[in-house]
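> forwarded from #structure-qc
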């Protein structure tokens, strides 16, 4: 029998019979719910269901240990072909790690901080295992997907958003930094979108997680259970490589395409995307703020961009000054880090934040106190956070070493599998070849297998923002 036969989320249950999944994982400590994560088998599919719906499926150490154990087991099993992870209930995939528990135990001093560091070791090892997993791993980002939930999903080659998806990396609001591999994932989003999301904690709802590249696919949540059952029917040849298997899965997901919602326009697009790239391309937080102030005062800009600048300035003024400066440097360095380097550096950074007053103050004020209050940051202003203060988060000196799974044979500097929407650099390469009209560029990418949903919208936005036309109607990339 599977570890737990009762599966609460219909998308994870699917419509197929269950099979044995092997030996049980070790029993957890009594203080943990034995049902906090559930596992199931549906022919070749193995499912993971985060099962703390009253806590929005927030990740704890018990869950991380169980999931890690199962993933290692399934990696060796010839019967396990596809892994699917989802969350119980309609509200959340996973709203994050249990940071309130960490902040409480940090108050006991070095011993409590060491216990918090042990949690990050569990979490980061799991996230890295997912990022380097040799079998197709699919994340149903159905509902709130934040913090620790991002680590369980964004490194997957296939990430499915629904109309209920709510994505954010809210760490700077609690005196922390975008961890769980955020230093690798966020800088590799297009333009300066990743830096913008990291510093502001801006939320992406529904289809906009797909448009921004956070998710690779978008379907209605009502289709997830049928998709699970359909994926369970897939049979791969032994000689098929990962790319072939992912292509088959992508084609299967396309069977459930019902179109994109017409009442949710692309958020990070057009003039707003231009403004984000202008303002968040600077290497100092103070320069970003000056750029936003310039946008706010520029009468030539559309009013909605000026209003956005005003709102963003207010947002940044509420964030931890230390977190903002550390995060910005993290985004710049992370562009060059490998996936292994990202998690090792983040582990060191997390250890330093456990002893920094902003983390406990931010978590207590935002998450523990009812009603929530305004944190007291220390230092209280950007000007008082020195370069020396920032640099200490990145200078290891042998502290907080972490041994990752498969770190020798599975390392990379770009995600090895390019799924989802066509990327801006691909569109630019086609346009720069010359002799292309808009319809031809759209047709080229629309005809590529498994990438039809959202292709027209994405290509049209990129062309409108970056291209002019010559007298014959051929596209010219601005700045070419």
């Amino acid at each position: 029998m599977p570890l737990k036969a009762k599966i609460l989320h219909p998308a994870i249950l699917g419509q197929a019979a269950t099979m044995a999944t092997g030996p049980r994982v070790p029993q957890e400590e009594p203080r943990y719910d034995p049902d906090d994560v559930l596992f199931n088998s549906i022919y070749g599919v193995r499912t993971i269901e985060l099962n703390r719906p009253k806590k929005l499926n927030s990740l704890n150490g018990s869950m991380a240990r169980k999931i890690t154990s199962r993933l290692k087991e399934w990696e060796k099993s010839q019967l396990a072909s596809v892994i699917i992870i989802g969350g119980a209930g309609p509200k959340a995939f996973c709203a994050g790690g249990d940071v309130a528990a960490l902040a409480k135990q940090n108050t006991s001093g070095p011993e409590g901080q060491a216990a918090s560091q042990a949690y990050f070791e569990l979490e980061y090892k799991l996230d890295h295992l997912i990022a380097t997993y040799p079998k197709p791993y699919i994340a149903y980002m159905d509902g709130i997907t934040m913090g620790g939930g991002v680590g369980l999903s964004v490194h997957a080659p296939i990430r499915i958003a629904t109309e209920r998806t709510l994505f954010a990396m809210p760490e700077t609001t609690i005196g922390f930094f975008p961890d769980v591999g955020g230093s690798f994932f966020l800088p590799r989003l297009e333009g300066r979108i990743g830096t913008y999301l990291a510093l502001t904690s801006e939320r992406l709802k529904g289809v906009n997680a797909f448009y921004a590249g956070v998710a690779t696919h978008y379907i209605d949540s009502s289709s997830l259970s049928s998709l699970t059952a359909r994926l369970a029917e897939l049979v791969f040849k032994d000689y098929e490589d990962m790319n072939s298997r992912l292509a088959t899965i992508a084609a299967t997901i396309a069977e459930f395409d019902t179109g994109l919602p017409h009442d949710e326009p692309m958020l990070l697009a057009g003039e707003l995307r231009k403004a984000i790239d202008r303002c968040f391309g600077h290497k100092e937080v103070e320069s970003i703020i000056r750029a936003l102030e310039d946008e706010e005062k520029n009468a030539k800009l559309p009013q909605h961009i000026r209003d956005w600048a005003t709102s963003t300035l207010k947002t940044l003024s509420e964030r931890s000054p230390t977190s903002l400066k550390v995060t910005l440097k993290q985004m710049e360095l992370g562009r060059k880090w490998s996936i292994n380097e990202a998690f090792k550096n983040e582990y060191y950074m997390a250890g330093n934040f456990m002893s920094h007053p902003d983390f406990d103050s931010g978590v207590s004020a935002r998450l523990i106190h009812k009603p929530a209050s305004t944190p007291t940051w220390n230092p209280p202003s950007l000007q008082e956070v020195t370069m020396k203060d920032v640099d200490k988060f990145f200078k290891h000196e042998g502290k907080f070493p972490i041994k990752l799974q498969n770190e020798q044979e599975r390392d990379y500097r770009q995600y090895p599998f390019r799924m989802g929407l066509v990327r801006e650099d691909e569109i630019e390469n086609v346009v720069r070849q010359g002799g292309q009209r808009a319809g031809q560029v759209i047709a080229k990418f629309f005809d590529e297998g498994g990438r039809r949903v959202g292709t027209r919208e994405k290509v049209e936005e990129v062309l409108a923002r970056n291209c002019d036309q010559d007298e014959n109607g051929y596209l010219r990339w601005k700045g070419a």
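QC bot note: The CA atoms of residues 107 and 113 lie 8 Å apart. Confidence is low (pLDDT under 50) at residues 1-7, 15-30.
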